Amino acid sequence: MRAREPMLGYLGLPQDDRAVVALLRQFLITRMPSVERDSFDEPDDSEITNPQDWLANLTRGIEFGFEDEASFNGEPPDLWGLGPMLLTQIYLYSSHPEAASYLGALPFGIDHGDDRETIRAKLDPLAKERRSRELDTWAFDGFMVTCGYLDGGILSFVVLLCQPPAGEGPDQAENYPSLRQLGALLGVPVDDPKTRQGLHSLGYPHRLQWIDESSSIMDLREDLGAYLEFERVDDEMVLALVQLTGDRRYGSAVWPGDLPGGLRFGCGWSEVLACAGSPPDSESEDDFTLFADWPGERFVTRIEYSTMTNGVLAVEIYLPAD
Questions:
Q1: Which domain of life is it from (predicted)?
Q2: C-beta of residue 202 within 8 angstroms of C-beta of residue 226
């Protein structure tokens, strides 16, 4: 597959690889990618605030996305910046309002001017699966392809994305609480026996970190892919938010426990709607991440969904604001 599509051969290579350097020069790009650091600190000691960088020549209809190797592999932020930047995304533009059309051959026989149905007919037989919302994403072994469209359904861009390694998650322990069980603990005081019993397998209370007199957290993302917040309500500290993540970025593990209604991390939007049984009550989007909320009787369920890779990133439940 990669041999037939030359651009795929660059995905995953470091920024100083001769082939990558030559590719950038081919499109008149001379700057090399770098992580973004906090400008208020000394350069060598400053915190990395963004492990990604983008190099583009929009007059040639192409853009390259790089990511720090440790970040891409799901390592924690204290390991970022020690290795190279990897080429993880290649954008090829077509009929885009802010970029010229890419003049080279588009992958998988896609043509400029193709509509959504034509592109689906070309890629569906080749891919392992397609996940769709506003964009279409096809999953292959080791990489993904995402296509975006204009309002009339005509191709606007193609993105080739390197698939992050799956890595090893925590043990599939049966004693982790389900999201339904965690939802039953929302609003329950921290000193209630129900809280102690329900969160015991997650390390409560010794993993509890007090932020101030009115808030505390249990940050279990690195080892369990879970994050819990406690807030003071009516003079009592209660469990107010639970987030379970399926995205290994920023050093997080993948939550090994059950999700409600057969939902699974990485599933597409149609599967989300089937599990939820109804469209979300509200939506917002920021930087290719969709936040969709379903209010319930006691708490709100939020799905974090990547609109670029068309997959569920995290599931969150929280107490509604008064």
A1: Bacteria
A2: yes
CA dist., res. 130 & res. 267, Å (int): 10
Kind of pairing, strands 129-132 and 136-139?
antiparallel
Buried b / exposed e across 269-294, counting CB within 10 Å, b at 16+?
bebbeebbeeebeeeeeeeeebbbbb
**Nearest by Cα to 315 from 306, 303, 307, 305:** 303
What residue ranges do the domains of the chain occupy? Answer: 6-162, 179-318
Q: Which tokens go with 276?
A: 């939820």
Give residue 258's pLDDT band: very low, low, confident or very high (50, 70, 90).
confident
The tens digit of pLDDT for each residue in 273-296 reads 999 999 999 999 998 999 999 999
What confidence category does residue 43 fall into, taking pLDDT thresholds of 50, 70 and 90?
A: low
> Element (H or E) spanning 211, and its range?
strand 209-212
CB atoms closer than 10 angstroms to residue 268: 21
CA-closest candidate to residue 52, choices 308, 315, 283: 308
| H-helix segments, 91-178 | 116-123
In angstroms, what is the C-alpha Rg of the chain? 22
Hey, what amino acid is at 34? S
Q: Give, rounded to a whole angstrom, the gap between the first and last alpha carbons of the chain.
A: 54
What is the H or E stretch that residue 224 is in?
helix 221-224
Q: What is the DSSP string of 158-192?
A: EEEEEPPP--------TTSPPHHHHHHHBT-BTTS
CA distance 238 to 233: 7
